[in-house]
């Protein structure tokens, strides 16, 4: 019984961090789909664009990698929240880099379901997430 209570002693922190992570992901999704000039959900829902699904999936994965690193390395929930916001900004910067510097016709290519454009956006998003997570160590 002592072992079980010891294991469950971390449950409140788990719940706080996990709930905060889910809130961050929902906020990220809410903002991300408004920052992008195309409607990912409409393109995905109507099964019109595998490319939009790949690009959005990469953005989610990249962001989740970064907030996972923040959760693992944060000293408290406030520290985690600050780095969760930094990770979100980094993902928006990754999108801007691809859209304005690497692939200026990104919007049209995603709307036209050109998979290579979605793949490069997804890869950049995940790469930024991995780098962000790695940089969050103290």
From TrEMBL:
Superkingdom in the source lineage: Bacteria
UniProt keyword Cell membrane present: yes
Membrane topology (UniProt): Multi-pass membrane protein
Predominant location: membrane
Coiled coil location: none
InterPro entries recorded: DUF350
Keywords: Cell membrane, Membrane, Transmembrane, Transmembrane helix
Compartmental location: Cell membrane
Residues passing through the membrane, by range: 14-32, 52-71, 77-103, 115-134
Family named by the database record: Belongs to the UPF0719 family.
Record's protein name: DUF350 domain-containing protein
